[in-house]
Amino acid sequence: MKKIIFAFVFVLGTITMHGQELKWETNLDVAMKISKKTKKPMLLFFTGSDWCGWCIRLQKEVLQTPEFAKWAKKNVVLVELDFPRKTPQDAAIQKQNQELQQAFQVRGYPTVWFAKASKIDGKVNFEQLGSTGYVAGGPSAWLEGADQILKNKKS
Prior knowledge:
Layout: H1 2-20, H2 28-38, E1 42-47, H3 53-63, H4 66-75, E2 77-82, H5 91-103, E3 111-120, E4 123-132, H6 138-154
Parallel strand pairs: 1-2
Antiparallel strand pairs: 1-3, 3-4
Helix pairs in contact: 3-6
């Protein structure tokens, strides 16, 4: 009987974890299509995933929590723009990320921009809604700031 209960709890836990997994786009064109279709702004996460301590901390304390997952699914399209030092990266993604780093004038990591994008005559135009970075206090503090950025642009 204990084995059956354990198996049930394990399966239920696995299903719950998969329900909270988020899809982070790495290709801006794909993210823009999803953003347009869902009418949600993009959350552009500029990170150094394999070397930036504050980026790793933001991931663990906020971006990998159930609270963030629930909020993100409702409010934004997630885009990871990574600048790894050790992990190999596709040349096209590397180029795209560098161009976006310049466009958003990112000077430090982690930086999170909220933006809407549109293509006019083949050129991407961004409406920058606001930015943030690491915020101490866990998901509730971070999400409060994110909500404020999104709320200010809706009014």
